[in-house]
Each structure stands twice: as structure tokens, then as C-alpha cells.
Specification:
Helix content: 10-25%
Distance between the termini: 65 Å
Number of strands: 19
Strand content: 35-45%
Number of domains: 1
Shape: extended
Radius of gyration: 28 Å
Number of helices: 6
Order of helices and strands: EEEEEEHEEEEEEHHEEHEEHEEEH
Structural class: alpha+beta
Length: 373
């Protein structure tokens, strides 16, 4: 078992390689810099953004995609193998017949078919390199109460982290909503009450309700939906916010030395989640439009039009450490350094804290008893 012991995933991944023109070694994208570098001979090469450099990232029509009418230029087909140990699916190159699973280091030989998917339109390049990502992770571990010191030391020793571009969908849509509800305005009445045998004047709050209806409109831009199931959604959601203004048109050069995971959440399912996000925001807009001190919303009817989408990749550093029989997974936002992971606990630290608490409580009780005596 390798030091990196990841959990199973069902998404295909691919790794892009760019040979150095000087020595032939694989070059890699240098996070935080706009270049490829060769760790073997030090050669540098500018990123080739292709004909889309400096241009806006083009959205695709949602209805056209759902009806399977996207042009073939928007589709890619990759060869997939499945890891017999952890179940991860990995893309093989045209001439490869075997590979090592990036999640558990198991040799993978059997070809299990092809994977057809919509090509990525854009990505946010890595800003943090592996050293910076590991520091962010170990600093995060260091701030956790009752985390085992051994795991902190184990993570700090330089075990490899994996830089992976995680798939997301973004959706744009124009919405117009009509609603029916009620507006509640507070008012106060003065009453005389008897308390402890004495009359007192008090103000009592009441609410006056009246019907309210109206319309709200909102254009949604880049509603972000995770398209992966490889990691718990609560981790990846907690890596937000992402600065999508830093999106670059997709270019394979950015993937040099990194991996890119294929999406598992299909487009229609992603749109369903996007609509849930939109509806939540529309409800907030409706309540604001109703106004008053309280709102009751009985019905919202939303017309959605001009729905477009794009498949994008966002940078995540990932590590999983097996420590004393338990696997702990950590993810680091490769753009901001924000960290999330499974919460490790140290049994002896908790026991020691409980013991100290009991000693302090006993000492306080003894002092109070002495003073009363």
C-alpha cells in the first residue's frame, strides 16, 4: 500500500504529459506562474492557450445538449480501466495497456470500455503548489483541538499530495417569477395586567396580515454545481468560494503534471441541483419584494429561459493518510488554500482533558466547601 491511500471513486481521470523539447522529460504546469517547467533540466515553456486566448468562454445551449444534438467537436471519448482494488476508473492513453491506480497504487491492466463526455470549456489553474498545499493542511491540523500529534507529523513528513482538477457544471438562466403571499406588519396594543397584586401597563406585539402578489426577475450567472462523487460533497462545498473570474479557456497545458477527473453527475442532474439553488434565491427575492416585518409565501411560478451551461475544472489538492488503521482524507482549495477534511481525534488527549476538568472541578468544589465551613 502506498503512502497515499485514497478511497474509491467511480469517475474517470486522465493525466496529460508534455515532453520537454530539450531533454525529453515530462514538463509540468507551474502553479502560480503562466508556464510549463521541466524539473529535470530547468527548461521553461509558455502556456499554449490556443486560438481562444484572451476570449470569453463560450456557453453551450442546455436544451441542445439534453436532446443529444451537441456537435461532435464538443464531445470526447476516452478509454477507461477500473481498479480491481478500490473501484476507481482511470483513463488510459492510446498506446497504454497498463497503469497504476492513482488512488491505491494497485496495478490496473483490464480495459473496461470507453467513456463519452462533454469536453471542459474552462478551468481555474492551480495557484498553490504541493508544498504550499501541504503547509495549509498541516496548519489546519495544528489548529484542531484533540487531533493526534502522530497524524500531524505523518502528514508533515512530505508524503505526496495529488493535484486533481475536479469537474463542475455552471449554469446561466434568465428567470421571471410571479408570486402570491401575505405581508405581515407588526403593531402594538397597550394592555393593563396584574402582576404580584399590582396593575402594570404592557405593550403587546401583534401582526396584521394582508394579501400581497407581484413579480420578480433575476438573471443567474455561473450557478456552480459539483459534478463529482469521488469526495463527500460537504468537503467540496466547504472549499468555496471560488473566484470564477479567474477562469481560463480550457488548454491541456494547464493539466501537465496534474490529473483531471471526469464528471459523474450528468448534465440533467446538475441542472436539477442548480434549479434548487436558483429557487432558494428567488424565494429570498420574493420575501424582500413582499416587505414588511414577516412574509408568508403561498405560491411562486417561475418561467426559466435562455439556459446555458459549461463544463469546467477547479483545482484541488487531495491527500488520504492511513494512520493506525484509520483513513483520513483532506482536500485543499488549489486557488485559495482553504482546507477541509475528516476530523481526527486523539483518545488520550480527550481523556487527559477530561481528567484535568475533573481535577479543576474537584478543586473548585473543595474551595467552596472550605469557605462555607
Amino acid at each position: 500500500m502506498s503512502d497515499f491511500d485514497g478511497s474509491a471513486t467511480t469517475a474517470p481521470e486522465t493525466e496529460h504529459r508534455f515532453p520537454c523539447e530539450q531533454c525529453g522529460a515530462d514538463m509540468r504546469f507551474d502553479p502560480g506562474a503562466d508556464r510549463l517547467i521541466c524539473d529535470h533540466c530547468g527548461a521553461e515553456q509558455a502556456i499554449d492557450r490556443g486560438p481562444w486566448a484572451g476570449g470569453a468562454i463560450r456557453e453551450l445551449d442546455f436544451r441542445t445538449a439534453i436532446e443529444n444534438h451537441l456537435p461532435e467537436t464538443e464531445i470526447e471519448v476516452t478509454r477507461v480501466v477500473t481498479c480491481p482494488n478500490c473501484g476507481a476508473q482511470t483513463d488510459l492513453g492510446e498506446k497504454d495497456h497498463a497503469a497504476e491506480c492513482p488512488f491505491c497504487a494497485t496495478p490496473v491492466v483490464t480495459d473496461t470500455g470507453t467513456h463519452r463526455q462533454i469536453k471542459p470549456k474552462g478551468l481555474v489553474p492551480f495557484v498553490l503548489d504541493e508544498t504550499q498545499a501541504r503547509k495549509a493542511m498541516t496548519d489546519w491540523l495544528g489548529r484542531l483541538w484533540f487531533a493526534p500529534n502522530g497524524l500531524k507529523d505523518y502528514a508533515r513528513k512530505g508524503r505526496r499530495m495529488n493535484g486533481i482538477y475536479v469537474p463542475y457544471w455552471t449554469f446561466d438562466a434568465d428567470t421571471k417569477s410571479s408570486y402570491r403571499g401575505e405581508r405581515g406588519d407588526d403593531y402594538y396594543e397597550t394592555r393593563t395586567v396584574v402582576r404580584d397584586g399590582k396593575k402594570q401597563t404592557v405593550r403587546v406585539r401583534k401582526t396584521r396580515w394582508r394579501p400581497k402578489s407581484g413579480r420578480v426577475a433575476r438573471f443567474f450567472d455561473d450557478v456552480l454545481v459539483l459534478a463529482s462523487r469521488s469526495l463527500p460533497k460537504r468537503y467540496t462545498d466547504a472549499l468555496e468560494p471560488w473566484d470564477l473570474s479567474r477562469l481560463e479557456p480550457y488548454a491541456p497545458d494547464y493539466l501537465a503534471g496534474f490529473r483531471a477527473e471526469g464528471y459523474q453527475v450528468e448534465l440533467a442532474e446538475g441542472y436539477t441541483e442548480a434549479r434548487t439553488i436558483m429557487d432558494r434565491i428567488i424565494l429570498r427575492d420574493v420575501k424582500f419584494d413582499i416587505g414588511g416585518d414577516h412574509q408568508r409565501v403561498h405560491n411562486i411560478d417561475t418561467a426559466v429561459s435562455a439556459v446555458t451551461f459549461k463544463h469546467i475544472l477547479l483545482p484541488v489538492w487531495m491527500a488520504a493518510y492511513k494512520y493506525r488503521g484509520e483513513t483520513y482524507r483532506f482536500v485543499v482549495n488549489g486557488q485559495t488554500g482553504r482546507v477541509q477534511g475528516e476530523r481526527p481525534w486523539s483518545a488520550w488527549k480527550i481523556a487527559f482533558a477530561v481528567l484535568i476538568g475533573l481535577i479543576v472541578a474537584g478543586a473548585v468544589g473543595y474551595v467552596m466547601a472550605t469557605q462555607q465551613g
